[in-house]
Amino acid sequence: MAEKRDYYDVLGVSRDADDETIKKAYKKLAKQYHPDLNPDSKTAESKFKEINEAYEILSDNNSRARYDQFGHNDPMGGAGGYGGNPFGGAGNPFGGSFGGGFGDIFETFFGGGFTQQQRDPNAPSRGNDMRVDMQVSFEEAARGVDKEISVSRYEGCVKCHGSGAKPGTGREKCAGCGGSGRVRTTQSTPFGQFQTVKTCPRCAGSGSVIKEPCPDCGGSGRMRKNRKLVVHVPAGVDNGSRLRMAGEGEGGKNGGPAGDLFIYISVRPHKLFKRDGDHVFLEQPISFVEAALGAAIEVPTLDGAVKLDIPEGTQTATTFRLRGRGFPKLRGYGRGDQYVKVKVVTPTHLNAEQKEILRRLGDGTGDDKKGFFGKIFKDR
Ligand SMILES: [Zn+2]
Ligand SMILES: [Zn+2]
Fold this sequence. Notes:
It is a single chain. Strands 10-11-15-14 form a 4-stranded mixed beta sheet. The chain has 9 helices and 15 strands. It is 23% helix and 27% strand. The protein is elongated and about 115 Å long. 22% of the residues are buried. It folds into 3 domains: 7-110, Helix Hairpins; 130-170 and 211-267, HSP40/DNAj peptide-binding domain (Sandwich); 274-345, HSP40/DNAj peptide-binding domain, CATH 2.60.260. The protein is of the alpha+beta class. α2 (19-32) runs antiparallel to α3. One zinc ion (ZN) is lined by residues 157, 159-160, 164, 214, 216-217, 221.
């Protein structure tokens, strides 16, 4: 094996060069000696390898430090050092592995389109997912509902089964690329002229074109259709719930499967009820008398009116729970609860007799307010 050149010499940089300088030098040399630009040149190939090896070491601070100390005779060099594959570099600035071909490096230098791998456009591919927004009422969210929607989507053409070719006709070799799917163009760059290979625009890289387009879809293999679908909205949906209808999205290409349809739910607010998770909250006004004496009142719930016993002496803002009167749990069994917060309404428009009764009530021993002030001033 020939004597290894000094890595700094290989890249043509000084020993105290900073990372940026090293990177620049490497890019310049890598372009110059790239095998794609120097076909059949063994010298260029070995130069290119040497450059990459040098860069791999010098671009990594740890391996550079070791190299500075030990040169090419690193005692650790055989194991995990820089004796390994120069193309698998963790330190290469292009992220990708060089093992997959030289496309990456040229994409970085020249903005792509050099030797990109193109997937076969005639291969079956899955259709796009679609999104539909749907509004439901508070009650519909609680009970569940079936709603009809109409969607406008691409579907695979029935006549040609998505091939785009008139039934009974096939495909023929693309005249644009002679069947290779690629076309060569000569590109001028600051580094000189060289050839680039691009995907054939006529056949989109497939190498073949249809002889006669399908009369139904005009050769696209798909048709836009308006469809009416029934969405089963389950009980318990909330704002932001997302329903999926598998296979109801856009049709696939070339016989591929259809995408899915996603329905995004928003629930209209209710004039009485509020919701938090599976629970329902209600503020229920009760009269002063009902609060004082107790009463059996009716409160609205998602299931209609339900009896609620108000014990005597109930204070305003007291909250009662109605078990199982909330929303059905979307995942799992059972329902949330309904919370009823009572609001004691102070009477207005009292007649003289009623006022007199209240005055006498206010003088009574059961008046909490009097007791309250009594406690405050007790210590004086
Ligand atoms: Zn068709
Ligand atoms: Zn072509």
